[in-house]
Amino acid sequence: MRLYQLNKTVLRLTRNPAEFLNGLCSNTLDRPQNAFVNVHGRIVATFEQCRVGDDEFMIVVERAFADGLMAHLEKYIRLSGVRVEKLDRHAYFDVEGGGEPPAGCFSITQKKGRLLVSEEMMPAEVSDAEFTLFRLRNNIPVQGADYRDEFLLNVGDDEFVSYTKGCFLGQEPISKVHNRSRPTWKLVVCSQDECPIDQRQKMTSLAIAPGTRRPMGFVFMPNASRD
User: Fold this and answer.
1) Do 150 and 45 meet the contact criterion of CB atoms below 8 Å apart?
2) What pTM was computed for the model?
3) Cβ–Cβ contacts within 10 Å for residue 83, how many?
4) Residues whose CB falls within 8 Å of the CB of residue 131, separated by 6 or more in sequence, listed in order
5) CB neighbours (10 Å) of residue 77?
6) Each residue's pLDDT tens digit, 73-107
7) Which one of 3.30.1360.120, 3.10.20.340, 3.40.462.10, 3.90.1170.50 gives the CATH number of domain 3-181?
8) Strand arrangement, sheet containing 215-222
9) Cβ contact 184:213 at 8 Å
10) Edge to edge, what strands does the sheet with 114-118 contain?
11) pLDDT tens digits, residue range 202-221?
């Protein structure tokens, strides 16, 4: 287990959270990742999720977007009666994954590795530079670093969207783009020398790839039209 400490806020939802989340989020509740979007399908917050009881969910969101998310949810919380509270928890990314999580932690599987949420501080030895390179190698962008409030499908639908779950806030524009065309832009990992010159200055999470020594990063690239 090798940990990187994340700057995340952990929220606990109780009092019928499943119904609340199903009506507002873009993905099913059995998936590790989900998103809140607005009526135009633009991202309010992407997050990791975990059911921890019959009437309890934990969601983990980038700390910089937690207050904006709570403002977005305020009226829906009042109408539904769901309870949302911030917890004093610590979030880590285990770049190795595998094995049982430490006592007192809950674990959320990622594309590679896992996210751990703990009541106690744990030693984190993975550096910023190592974790950035890990994210690039495994196509794990971060809200606030690589995207903010873009249209959700510009960032990705494999992790964040279910097209069979039923209605949710922002579903109509997302479904229209999915069914009729493709998003205009797509967030991808690209080597700097393969990126158009006008896009190079927009690259994020830049790192030098070992071996090739080529700079690489995340960038929004034009997406080919569907035939």
Assistant:
1) no
2) 0.93
3) 15
4) 4, 93, 95
5) 15
6) 999 999 999 999 999 999 999 999 888 888 889 99
7) 3.30.1360.120
8) 185-191, 215-222, 204-208
9) no
10) 3-5, 90-94, 114-118, 105-109
11) 999 999 988 888 999 999 99
